[in-house]
Amino acid sequence: MKVTAKYVATAVVAGLLLTGCSANANNSNANDASTGSTTLTAAYSEGGTTLNPTEANDVTSDTFVLAAYDQLVTYATQEVDGKKTANTAEIVPMIAESWEVSDDDTVYTFTLRDDVVFQSGNPLTSADVVGSFDLIAASNSASFLYGMAGINEVTAIDESTVEISLTAPNHLFLQILPMYSFSMIDTALVEENGGAEWLATNTAGSGPFTVDSWDPSTEAVLTRNEDYWGDAPALETVNIKFITEASNRVQLLSKGEVQLALEIPAKDVASLEETEGVVVDSRASNKILYFAMNNNVAPFDNEQVRQAISYAIPYEKLLTDVMQGQASEMKSSVASSTPGFTAEGNDATYDLDKAKELLTEAGYPDGFTFEFTLGSGFQDWSDDAVLIQAELAKIGVTMNITNMARAQFLEAIATNQVQSYISRWTSFVNDPGYHLGLLLTADGTSNYANYNNAEVDALWAEAANEPDQDVRNDLYGQAQAIINEETPWAYLYEYNIVVGLQEGTEGYTSYPDGIVRYSQMSVN
Amino acid sequence: MPETTRSTRSRTKAVGFGRLLLRNRLGMIGLGVIAFWTIGSVFIGLFSPYGATETAAGPLLSAPSASHLFGTDNFGRDLLTRVFEGGKISLWTGLIAVAISLAIGVPLGGIAGYAGGWIGSVIMRVMDVLLAFPSLVLAMAVAAALGPGTSSAMIAVGIVGIPEFARITYGQTISLKQREFVEAGRALGLTSTTIVIRHIVPNALAPIVVRSTLGMGYAILTAAALSFIGLGAQPPTAEWGVMISDGRGYIISGEWWLTFFPGLAIATSILGFNLLGDALRDVLDPRLRTTA
Amino acid sequence: MSYVIRRILAMIPALVGVVICIFLLTRVLPGDPARTLAGEQADAASVEKIRADMGLDQPLITQFFSYIGDLLRGDLGFAWHTGHTVVEDLASRLPATAELALVAILIALVIAVPLGIVSAVCRDRWIDHVGRVISLVGASMPLFWLGLLVIYFFYFTLGIAPAPIGRISSGVNPPTEVTGLFLVDSLLSGDTVAFSSSLQSIIWPALVLATGSIAMISRMTRSAMLEVLGQDYVRTARSKGLSPRFVIGKHAFRNASPSVVTVVGLEFGQLLGGAVITETIFSWPGVGSYVTQSIMATDYAPVQAFTLLAAAIFLVVNLIVDLVNAAIDPRVRNA
């Protein structure tokens, strides 16, 4: 029929046009991506929730904050095996050019640089520092850290001197100051625009980039701050694209359409490494994954039962089959990259006979049944659960898995009544005091497994006020030994932070918070 | 129409219906596909040497081969066994979901149509509200509210299907109410309940049967979609939507079979229900062919 | 006129019902939005503060009335997971979904209507059966599976489809915004690079979406045509010696169009509200993927706003379809 023929012809022509055009578009894409050694395009998984430093707590939002704001001090960097990494033990000046500590370690006096200018043109003065700390103290999220740092009062001595007094000596204070939550904000600009709410979608910083545009559904664009007081970034423009599908991020990287991709699934690392022009930076981090057993719920109130479980976990299999080598052994409740780490007291290995022995000693020769709550959203968590369930079945222990959506999961574990679960944790403040304080002391706000040991609490409290790092680490070591013995958790693994980079993309520095500082990066 | 007793008429109808259906080849193909999946899923234990949750039944992530016709997944589980095992869940979910829609929708529609007046109005308004919701979003919201899991998916899809059944029953009841045999029944002094059950329902059955068949296909699809997003059945359950979701990260590394076969299962079983439903529609009431 | 007013008034109770239902449904979603926003490391005090900010510490009735109050003022609420107001989010996302739905429905029309006409005219011949099977296969296809396969074959294996990352390739700048529809805007500004790139990006998700609609539309066209072709006036026209094309085009199809228009309108409304999963797979920054993310993040305002919007669109589309049919066919007006 003539009508049909016409349709067919149009379709064929259209098809030819499309495929013909694809060559052109791809060429222009390739050109745009590789020319401009001052432009970097990155693929992130989430669109971010706020630009407000005091409320930001997800990777994307934190990235914006660190690009647009500066802090009083920051972490030093070092080179380990030819790769740049942060040295969180060493704090170096940023906005504050120097500081002094009083003899009793409770008063810090910071001398500010006199050349720091906000992106609005306002100069940064001590009034802004005081105002920023006020905003932090009044915020929803960062106020918690304000309390953790033990800050008592922030006073401006003169235009470029600020005095911060603590409630007691607190070694975490200097470790917390470099965090994105403690960014220095242009308080005059904020007041002009009606208060802190304006900061959710606007920036008021002094940092190396401005957030030119931000559409959480597609992308954000960072532009170099030409009047930056510090070292000018090599990059002029940073395009951050929000791609939720992990496989799409991997594809974009391997085809050269982005120069940097975050959150690469473990199983794609091998093929990416073989792709020409792609480099995978996979380094150990302090992000841990642990299997928690509720110490208040039988039979996990019995130490031997918990230890038995820890001998039934197929540790090797988790590292090879699930994480494909993109994780390493976890040997203590504290990550191995945290100063003060010790594996003392931890003898757990994959030994089903030993597990059975311990179970019998504990009074459960025929095993038992327990409830395990699995939060959804992480492929490796459910893969781990499947493998652990299979191993536990071999020693007569039945693990009933209950699935929960992430929001529901977070709510459930916060009731402290969940019998067992796995969860991950990364301590942005790379310090056992922060880590153990939140997770394994009796009052720890994230201690959902109800671990309670008076001695551990005492050791932690003592270390909290101890100014000498070696003495502190010794105390934390003792606490860890006790925890390793008592096994409130089985230690699954320590994640690597995996970042995919185009060859020629230089400057990536690994930080515990996993956030990319674009001021350090360049593209060849 | 010749005056015959009701029982003779229904028997003739049944025989005629059976013959007509058999002659409809597409319908028979549909029935065959459904039978294939049903029998295969129920008896998979007999056909397959592997277990559905048996890790390391074969090499990890191996392509379809003689020993593993659909290949294996990232835990070395045999995919064919898992796909048929998943058939059990998907078919059962579809069945329960349609049952829920029927059990709630038909009575509501029947009452609304027969009683009329303000009761009928209110009921149909509520149905309008349910219909106005984008169906997948409503299913997602209900499933999310109930918590992820297979039963949540069943209930969610069941609820989404209610308005259609109510509408059909309402329409049929309204038109049948006027027919002579209802008037005759009333004249004879039969109660309303008797009239509804013995006269109206059997005559309204035809579109409901068609709708149920088509609804099974839709229910399986929606339940799989919910699992795909993460709101229905959860890993490690062997359910078609879950398997596609698990497998989608492997597409770019070339392990296409993880997504292909579960999806093929969904597509063919839905096709089976659609073919059968279409054939039933043609056979049960030729007039229905021209209405939506 | 009174017909129109009657119809509009009939929409209101349905909308009110939808508003109440979705408000309650979101409140039933498990998981605490405050805790989700605060993150897993937050302490209880921070979570409480955030909850107060969200207004969730108020009794349910108070929350409902402030929601209604906001609605009447045009304030659709604040999306916690994006940090923007729902109005802003929808404004940036609606054009994406609208464009996708439009292109999909056009493709569906172009394929389905001729298919339906041919099936009707050559009824019960092999072409009719083939047509029925094709459209049935399309209707049975799980779109998320089809989408993944399309990406696998055409992007990953053959390399002719662009990366499924959105409406336009990453190296190309979007056209200057006029309508928000990239294809239209790039034509208006003469930006051929953007036009070509947007077309290539949109064609694949649109094709996937279209397969679902093709079945409905072709079947409706077929059955409507069949009904009409059996009528007396068609036989009269033919016996008068008029050419078959004229009879089919002018008489038959014109009279069959109300049903076709109805189903096209309904399908379009469906597409606007239903492209949820296809958008997620193709990373299409539209309203569908927005609402999915919001449900997963227990973000109430977007889910409420979207449902209300979708219901309103559905009802409005129904209204328009009825009005168009009333215009074409006077008999409908008096129903």
Q: How would you portray this structure in words?
A:
The complex is a heterotrimer of chains A (524), B (292) and C (335). Chain A is α+β, with helices and mostly antiparallel strands. Chain A contains 16 helices and 19 strands. In chain A, the strands form five sheets. In chain A, strands 1, 8, 9, 10, 11, 12, 13, 16 and 17 form a nine-stranded mixed beta sheet that branches. In chain A, strands 4-5-7-6 form a four-stranded antiparallel beta sheet. A two-stranded antiparallel sheet of chain A has the order 2-3. The longest helix of chain A is centred in the N-terminal third of the chain and has 33 residues. The radius of gyration of chain A is 26 Å and the shape is globular. The N and C termini of chain A lie far apart (59 Å). Helix content of chain B is 74%, strand content 0%. Chain B has eleven helices and no strands. In chain B, α2 crosses α11 and α6 crosses α7. By secondary structure, chain C is an all-alpha fold. Chain C contains 15 helices and two strands. The longest helix of chain C has 38 residues. Chain C is globular, with a radius of gyration of 24 Å. Chain C starts with a helix and ends with a helix. The mean pLDDT of chain C is 82. Classes of the chains: A alpha+beta (524), B mainly alpha (292), C mainly alpha (335). Chains in contact: A-B, A-C, B-C.
What's the short story on this structure?
Chain A is α+β, with helices and mostly antiparallel strands. Chain A is 34% helix and 25% strand.
What's the topology here?
The complex is a heterotrimer of chains A (524), B (292) and C (335).
Chain A: H1 2-34, E1 39-44, H2 59-68, E2 73-80, E3 83-93, E4 96-101, E5 107-112, H3 126-138, H4 142-148, E6 151-158, E7 161-166, H5 172-176, H6 187-192, E8 209-214, E9 219-224, E10 237-242, H7 246-254, E11 260-262, H8 266-274, E12 278-293, H9 303-310, H10 315-322, E13 327-328, H11 352-362, E14 369-375, H12 379-394, E15 398-404, H13 406-413, E16 420-426, H14 432-439, H15 454-464, H16 469-486, E17 489-502, E18 505-506, E19 522-523
Parallel strand pairs in A: 1-10, 1-11, 14-15
Antiparallel strand pairs in A: 2-3, 4-5, 5-7, 6-7, 8-9, 9-10, 11-17, 12-16, 12-17, 13-17, 18-19
Helix pairs in contact in A: 3-4, 9-11, 15-16
Chain B: H1 6-23, H2 25-42, H3 44-47, H4 79-115, H5 117-132, H6 135-146, H7 150-177, H8 180-188, H9 192-229, H10 240-247, H11 257-284
Chain C: H1 2-28, H2 33-38, H3 44-54, H4 60-72, E1 78-79, E2 84-85, H5 86-121, H6 126-140, H7 143-157, H8 182-188, H9 192-229, H10 232-239, H11 244-274, H12 276-281, H13 287-296, H14 300-328, H15 330-333
Antiparallel strand pairs in C: 1-2
Helix pairs in contact in C: 1-14, 5-6, 5-9, 5-11, 6-9, 7-9, 8-9, 9-11, 11-14, 13-14
